[in-house]
Amino acid sequence: MKTLQRLALCAALLVDATAQAGPASGLLPLARMQSTSTPAGPVRNAAFAPGDDARAAPPFAGVLRISAAELAVAPALAKRIVDGRDAQAFPGVSLAFITLDDGTLVPLERGTMVAESARGKTSSYWNLIPQFGRVWREKGDGDWSRAAFPLMLVNDTENHAHQGLATFLYRGSDVSALQFQFVQQNAPYLLSPYCQFWGAARTEFRASSADAAAQASAARTAREELAARLPAQPLATLRKTLPRGTLDGLGGPVLPQWQVALGLFWKGTLYYEGADTPQGAYPYPLEMRFGVRSVTKSVGTPLSLLRLAQVYGPYVLDLRIGDYVPGLDPKWSRIRFIDAANMASGFGGVGSFVTHPNDDNEGYLLADYDGWYTAPSHAQKLAHINSHLTPYPWEPGTVMRYRDQDFYLLGAAVDAFLKSVRGPKADAWHMLEEEVFTPIGIAHAPIVRTREADGREGLAWFNAGYYPTLDDLAKIALLMADKGEHAGVQILHRGLTEDLLAARGAIDKDGDAARPTDRAAGAPPPRLYRMGYHYTAWTGSRSGQLLQLPTMSGFGDNEVNIFPGRTIAIRAAKAVTWKGGPVVHSDDPLATARAVDRLSPL
Questions:
Q1: Where are the beta strands (DSSP E) in 511-576?
Q2: What pTM does this model have?
Q3: Considering only Cβ atoms within 10 Å of each terminal Cβ, which end of the chain, N or C, has fewer?
Q4: How would residue 189 be classed by pLDDT, with cut points 50, 70 and 90?
């Protein structure tokens, strides 16, 4: 009975009540749904979710073959063609669906980056990630039923995501056109400016080739996936139970208009909130996947190293990058895995050589950074590193200089080490999926990989590229907060995880370990970094102690903070600071820590 109740609750949570505003047929009537012409503009997001008057729909099972289409955009893109691919081309794909008895629409390709299988005039810049949706019926649709599902536009060159929605009508084996719009996004980098996309595509229905047993198995897997999610409630529900102003500033210092979604795990429940979009509330906030950029550094690196340390021993941290990635400068034979994980390789010699005091961002985007970033294959990325970066004069492990290349090479080295002990078919990210993500209830972990000309699967980026949900990020942070243990099983090396949580062995971003100095009286706490984690210095209101809160951080101000007591704060955002640009931050850089401390004094 508890399992059935949990599944019913999960189905209810798929649609945010704040997004329900009357029948979808009033916003996207039958005639519009049947048309493949480009709509005049996006509509209210309520058109993509059942309203209060929705009725149960018959099941839908089959494959939707979606033709390539034009993406309308506003405002206009600064550059439509990126790396030879069209950012206004909606990719032609085939997506398979089934439904559950409660009206949940289940894309069988959910949580995966689906590349175009039928291109239009030009190749699309985009991949698609579909998520759980809903089916229902409305009076205004006659004998047709509606299906809608969250759909992310994502890219396999950079960790960029537009959160969107798609809908179609079905009647037996007849289907309408697909209507879609993308009304929220993470921060742009190669593609600008901030924008909305929308359009319509021709579709064809094809009966599923799966037999009844296979469909039943797929349905069972979907139910198990939903049941494995953390208990969740809208953040507004929690706010109502607390003294006025308790959670003011949560998500700060990023201003609300630059936030995409918030998550707060507290006392066993994930409280969530999607930021408003130009078309109103996003109906499926728990289904959103985000381009979290360098938060990936806090996922791939610590989880892989701590898992390998648990399986093979802590010595893996002391392995040398150059022993596993051939063809690099000789200095890499002295650079340990942990040095690269601490962004202290002593390599990448561009910018200032002053280290006392140190500027950890010095030279970060120099040496044709974009040329390296967009290089598609592993060999091309290595060639770019070898031709543009050189050794610094200091030893590995002494000075932090922020370098995405360090984490990329670390990922390649971890993958090569895994192949050396498990065979040529081993893969670092697949190891994480099977040995870390699946045990803690993460069913899908889409990641950007190198694009290899021979069609083989490329290397997972460790510097960026992960597309998680709020639920995924909360589970990863909880695994760390629980010292690498889940359900009584030690997944990560406990001692090393405790070191990471306590910032033991962390490097001072502003210092030079070869020239240590005493901190002046009254100086601010050190800014620390270890194994992909930053640390947020906060003095607890109850304890009076200085806490170094482990923090995942990524471009656009995506952030995950791990607080004592298994409290986790998550912010997906789209904030970029540039000279002359809009103000995206408040004047309180510790606003989130302040809000959590009011909620649960530290």
A1: 528-530, 533-539, 546-554, 558-563, 567-573
A2: 0.96
A3: N
A4: very high
